[in-house]
Amino acid sequence: MLAAFMYGAGDVRVETAPDPVIQHPTDAIVRTVRSCICGSDLHPYHSQKEGTRGRPVGHELIAVVEEVGADVRTLRPGDFVIATFAFQDNTCVYCREGLQTSCVHGGYYGRPDTGGLQASLARIPWADGSLVKVPDVDPDAADPGLLASLLTLSDVYLTGYHAAHVGDVGPGRTVAVIGDGAVGLSGVLAARELGAERVILMGRHPDRTALGVHFGATEVVAARGDEGVAEVRDLTGGEGAHVVIEAVGLLPAFEQAAGIVRAGGVISRVGLPQFSQMPLVRELFYKNVRIAGGPAPVRAYIDAALPRVLDGAIDPGRVFDRTLPLADAPEGYVAMDAREALKVMLTP
Q1: Whether residue 114 sits in one domain with residue 61
Q2: Radius of gyration (Cα) for the chain, nearest Å?
Q3: For 75-96, what is the HEC assignment?
Q4: H or E stretch including 144?
Q5: Of 49, 71, 143, 259, which has the most beta carbons under 10 Å away?
Q6: pLDDT tens, N- to C-terminus, the chain (348 residues)
Q7: What Å distances lie between residue 52 and 8, 11, 17, 43, 55, CA to CA?
Q8: Sign (positive or negative) of CA dihedral 147, 63, 110, 129
Q9: Are 149 and 49 within one domain?
Q10: CA 285 to chain centre
Q11: Which residue, 293, 309, 332, sits at the end of a domain?
């Protein structure tokens, strides 16, 4: 099979690798229909130390089941499935509480023992809990836009939804979204799905903010830092936003969030943090601001979101603006790193 590996900063290679095999009776082997590059993949793309062995990459996937282990009960070869970006048994105490990314048997892709999902085949641990069947869709005949939207349910749209959900977005709320990447734009769509009255998108790339307006942003603020904070506070009559979705993961973005959240509001963080200490604790304490967010337990949301995608009520797949064959994945990393592409989808 073909699979993508990262050998160091800026060094992604697609190589021929051994086909995965069933290792545990709860595993499944799947054949890729679509995978993609995530914005979080760019962090190691900037910083990973050079090595002689490549690290497998990729964690978003829609696929067809090829083989199942002896203990897999809900799947069979030929099923069209969505793989959640973290694997889980979906039965442990945390899974039952809707926090599948803390599953006691779960974990993440992109390690030598699990492999990555930017590959033509993949082994999925705990397949009954980690794969969700897509009913009545033939992936070989499906509309490409539908496939793109189904792929967002593996991670990106439901990460944006998680941010809005744990931020208690609802009717009458003003939401500010920091970041016009795919997760931030997904947060805009999710906030409107949950009934937000206003959604202020903070981004400075016109093609991306135009998509944000399509998804339901009511205002766009291109300024950053103190100027951006002042503009949002002016738009909200000096009060700030009830909910701030921080979809970047960098310290300046969090500082901006702290400046625009209103007293008693919520900062919901789903940008993978690239800083180790929580800043501005004293300021947030005196404003009674809550901090929410984290890795999205997409398995908790996917059953409700899937029918909305299938009936065309939402079209989160519009975040994909470039499609490349898996063999050209390195080109996709270059394009996303240069902001020439918002999010790149990969075909087998």
Answers
A1: yes
A2: 20
A3: CCCCCEEEECCEECCCCCHHHH
A4: helix 144-152
A5: 259
A6: 999 999 999 999 999 999 999 999 999 999 999 999 999 999 999 999 998 899 999 999 999 999 999 999 999 999 999 999 999 999 999 999 999 999 999 999 999 999 999 999 999 999 999 999 999 999 999 999 999 999 999 999 999 999 999 999 999 999 999 999 999 999 999 999 999 999 999 999 999 999 999 999 999 999 999 999 999 999 999 999 999 999 999 999 999 999 999 999 999 999 988 887 878 888 888 899 999 999 999 999 999 999 999 999 999 999 999 999 999 999 999 999 999 999 999 999
A7: 9, 11, 15, 19, 10
A8: positive
A9: yes
A10: 29
A11: 293
Q: What is the pTM of this model?
A: 0.96
Structure tokens at 279: 């800043």
Amino acid at site 104: V
Find residue 346's DSSP bridge partners. Answer: 35, 324
> Can you name the residues that pair with 2 across neighbouring β-strands?
16
The C-alpha angle 202, 255, 261, rounded to 5 degrees, equals: 65
| Strand ranges of the sheet holding 2-8, from the earlier edge strand across to the other edge | 11-16, 2-8, 55-56
Give the residue numbers spanning the domain of 102. Answer: 2-155+297-347
Count Cβ neighbours within 10 Å for each residue of 241-264 and write b for 16 or more, e otherwise.
Answer: bbbbbbbbbbeebbbbbbbbbbee
Select from 272, 293, 314 the last residue of a domain.
293
Q: What is the DSSP letter of 111?
A: B
